Amino acid sequence: AKMQVPEPQIFVERTLALIKPDAVDKEEEIEDLILRSGFLIVQKRKLQLSPEQCSNFYADQYGKMFFPNLTAYMSSGPLVAMDLARHDAVSYWKELLGPSDSLKAKRTHPHSLRAIYGTDDLRNALHGSLSISSAEREIRFMFPEAILEPIPAGQRARDYLNLYVKPTLLAGLTALCKEKPADPMTWLADWLIEHNPNKPRLQH
Questions:
Q1: What is the C-alpha to C-alpha distance for residues 28 and 13, in angstroms, rounded to an integer?
Q2: Which ranges constitute the DSSP H helices of the chain?
Q3: End-to-end CA distance of the chain
Q4: Using one digit for the tens of pLDDT, what is the confidence trace for 19-77?
Q5: Structural domain tally of the chain?
Q6: Is 2 inside any structural domain?
Q7: In terms of residue numbers, what domain contains 102?
Q8: Is pLDDT at 159 greater than 70 in this prediction?
Q9: Domain co-membership, 92 together with 163
Q10: Where is the Nucleoside diphosphate kinase-like domain positioned along the sequence (predicted)?
Q11: Beta-carbon neighbour count of residue 117 at 10 Å?
């Protein structure tokens, strides 16, 4: 019997990064570092959490001495949540962050992000998921409408195509028949890019 060679699969790991309220003014600088470290910023939002939302987010820290201070600090102003993707995202982002105590980070990992942007053991400028499972939970928390599941197949894929892809494609093909361009494939590709319903609108 012939050996079945498995299809190559690419699993890109995701992690949640937060720019905490005390470092939000350094957002552009930090994002630049993130991109230069080979991460893709899959989605990003700026939000302000209530103390209650903070305590839900940090539910696993509940009952620790610093918990009230943590929730007060995390709800003290807007923060930036980012869903980051790259190979080994979780451990790589943790490595970039350095120790959670910024004072310790300044001594032992002077080039880490918390050494550069953090203040002390509580105000450490940035957050990173500790594991793949906590990354999933935290990304869902910050981006409740996000799709983290594998790409749909079967009936779900057909539903998705019918709902989101076919109407646009049909309009494009109709326009193509009216236009009759010399190079139909390129024309259609350009038309689809131009009329992508999910495209952010730019004001000219």
A1: 23
A2: 27-36, 51-57, 67-74, 89-97, 102-108, 113-117, 132-142, 154-160, 166-179, 184-194
A3: 62
A4: 999 999 999 999 999 999 999 999 999 999 999 899 889 887 767 777 788 889 999 99
A5: 2
A6: no
A7: 14-142
A8: yes
A9: no
A10: 12-150
A11: 23
Is residue 84 located within the same domain as residue 180?
no
Site of tokens 């102003």: 77
The number of helices, as runs of H, and strands, as runs of E, in the chain is 10, 4
- In a domain, residue 84? The reply is yes
Do 71 and 158 belong together in one domain?
A: no
Same domain, 133 and 89: yes
Question: Which residue's structure tokens are 């076919």?
Answer: 166
Question: Pick from 138, 19, 14, 27: which is nearest to 84 by CA?
Answer: 14
C-beta contacts of 109-117 below 8 A and 24+ residues apart: 113/30, 113/33, 117/23, 117/26, 117/30
Looking at the fold, whether 168 and 67 belong to one and the same domain comes out as: no
Of 12, 57, 72, give the one whose Cα is nearest residue 39. 12
**Residues acting as catalytic residues:** 127
Q: Does residue 114 fall inside a structural domain?
A: yes
As given in the structure block, the two tokens for residue 101 are 């105590």
Which residues contact residue 26 at a Cβ distance below 8 angstroms, ignoring those fewer than 6 apart?
19, 117, 125
Residue 165 in domain: yes
User: What is residue 10's three-state secondary structure?
Assistant: coil
For 67-101, the pLDDT digits (tens) are 788 889 999 999 999 999 998 999 999 999 999 99
